[in-house]
Write a structure and sequence with these properties.
By secondary structure, the chain is of the alpha+beta class. The chain folds into two domains: 96 residues, Winged helix-like DNA-binding domain superfamily/Winged helix DNA-binding domain (Arc Repressor Mutant, subunit A, Orthogonal Bundle), CATH 1.10.10; 218 residues, no CATH class. Helices cover 32% and strands 25% of the residues. The protein contains ten helices and 13 strands. Strands 3-4-5-6 form a four-stranded antiparallel sheet, covered by helices on one side. Helix 3 packs across helix 4 and helix 7 packs across helix 10. The longest helix has 20 residues. The relative contact order is 0.07.
Length: 332
């Protein structure tokens, strides 16, 4: 039943932990003229140019308002938080550029689909061919034969192997292989930031945790009935500020650890990004992760060991409950 006595605005009621700064921002931007000002300044913005200020008269003309008093009122509301006033006029501050960039990228706005297209990469569980598809701002690698890696509670396609977040603007003019490579490179780079406990979305602190299935027993289809996953050990990360999150194997977190890069380099295998990284390089890196051996060393405190092998040599990395590498051992 509706509470007719409530004097709290819907924004304030919904804000919760987001706090008053979030409600203030939504209120501030809840006006077409103010959004038009931000977009007009964005159109005038040129990267690597020292002066990007737009004069008052030019900005008003770009927005299409003839009444100076009304325009000045809305512009003044934006100055400080989103717009910087200089001797030459007005220009976007970085928060405003990031806001417009997210809109330009089309995330959550533009409905883009990429029909399933097979690539030259096999399923790690059954060896069948895999395909790349795109929907809901995710690039998916899916198996064409088995259930893949089940993700309980998430609306992902069947046969899921990998789900990479990717903006709609990055989909056009890319083949399935290029889309898979680009999304993998972007997300591995993001994992690198999270590895240092820095959120790539908002720069907040990232909290890592281990989710271990104590009764892991995969069925004939490779999925455990207890945890609903093919993996007994899942690494989870969540930003304490913006709630950006992800999940995957502990191996994907340590793939670009300096000890791992050096280990493979000593065996003639280069991993990481070179500026010419192709889909074959991406698949090779992911195949290395798939070959990692992961084992639970202890439950209390949680300790997991990830082992990389090459030419009868091994590199063992011990991870704590926050997935920090606390020990490395190499044997030949």
């Amino acid at each position: 039943m509706e509470d007719s006595d409530s004097t709290e605005s819907p924004l304030a009621a919904a804000a919760g932990v987001a706090g008053p700064h979030a409600t203030d921002t939504f209120t501030l931007l809840g006006d077409e003229t103010r959004l038009a000002i931000l977009l007009a300044l964005w159109e005038a913005y040129e990267p690597h140019t020292e002066h990007n200020a737009v004069s008052f008269s030019e900005l008003r003309e770009r927005v299409g308002l003839r009444q100076g008093t009304q325009f000045n009122y809305h512009l003044d509301k934006l100055v400080g938080r989103f717009v910087r006033k200089t001797d030459d006029g007005y220009e976007l501050r970085r928060p405003a550029r990031k806001l417009v960039q997210s809109i330009i990228a089309g995330t959550g706005i533009e409905e883009v689909r990429f029909e399933p297209t097979e690539i030259d990469a096999s399923c790690e569980f059954c060896g069948a061919s895999t395909a790349i598809t795109y929907e809901n701002s995710y690039v998916y690698q899916v198996c064409t034969n088995c259930r893949g890696e089940a993700a309980p509670g998430e609306a992902h396609p069947s046969g899921l192997l990998i789900a990479w977040t990717f903006e709609p603007t990055g989909v056009s003019d890319r083949t399935a292989e290029e889309l898979f490579a680009a999304s993998t490179i972007k997300n591995l780079s993001r994992i690198g930031l999270r590895f240092e406990n820095v959120c790539p979305e908002c720069s907040g602190r990232v909290e890592w945790s281990l989710d271990i299935c104590e009764d892991h027993d995969p069925a004939s289809d490779g999925v455990c009935p207890h945890c609903g996953s093919a993996q007994a050990i899942i690494a989870r990360e969540t930003c304490s500020v913006c709630k950006s999150s992800g999940r995957g194997s502990p191996g994907i977190k340590v793939l670009l650890h300096p000890a791992v890069i050096a280990f493979y380099y000593d065996h003639g295998i280069e991993i990481g990004f070179t500026g010419t990284t192709a889909v074959t390089d991406v698949i090779r890196m992911l195949e290395l992760v798939e070959a990692f051996e992961e084992e639970v060393v202890s439950q209390d405190p949680p300790r997991v060991r990830v082992t990389a092998s090459c030419d009868d040599d091994e590199l063992r990395l011990l991870l704590d409950e926050r997935l920090n590498v606390i020990d490395t051992t190499e044997s030949t």
